[in-house]
Amino acid sequence: MAQIITIEFPDSLANSMRMSKSEFGREIKISGLVKLFELGKISSGTASKVLQLSRIEFLELLAKYSVGFLNVEDLNEDFQNA
């Protein structure tokens, strides 16, 4: 079951980034999941599922945010799923 999080922000914030409200919402979702991955709170597999991306697409997306993707937990998960 999906949950919904509501975030209040002024229209000027999305406008200043030259994004529509829906584009801004997607950016917040992506950046939040990237940060959770970076902190080791979620795996790349989990983040990619939430974003409906392949795991490789998510790992490529990390470069946009200057986040490395090699960590022990992900490697262990890879070995277990192989």
Description:
This is Fis family transcriptional regulator. The chain is an all-alpha fold and 82 residues long. The chain has one domain. Helices cover 63% and strands 0% of the residues. Helix 3 crosses helix 4. It is elongated.
Core attributes:
UPF0175, 5 helices, mainly alpha, single chain, 63% helix, 82 residues, Fis family transcriptional regulator
Which secondary structure elements does this structure contain, and how are they paired or packed?
Elements: H1 11-16, H2 21-38, H3 44-51, H4 55-64, H5 72-81
Helix pairs in contact: 3-4
What share of the residues does DSSP label as strand, in percent? under 5%
Number of E strands: 0
Secondary-structure element order, as H and E?
A: HHHHH
- Contiguous uncertain segments of 5+ residues: none
Largest beta-sheet characterization: none
Assembly state (oligomeric): single chain
Number of helices: 5
Mean pLDDT level: 88
Structural class of the secondary structure composition? Answer: mainly alpha
Distance between the termini: 28 Å
Count of all domains: 1
Which percent range fits the helix content?
Answer: 55-70%
Shape: elongated
Tell me the radius of gyration.
14 Å
Organism: Flavobacterium faecale
Protein name: Fis family transcriptional regulator
InterPro entries: UPF0175
Q: Brief description of this entry?
A:
By secondary structure, the protein is mainly alpha-helical. The chain is 63% helix and 0% strand.
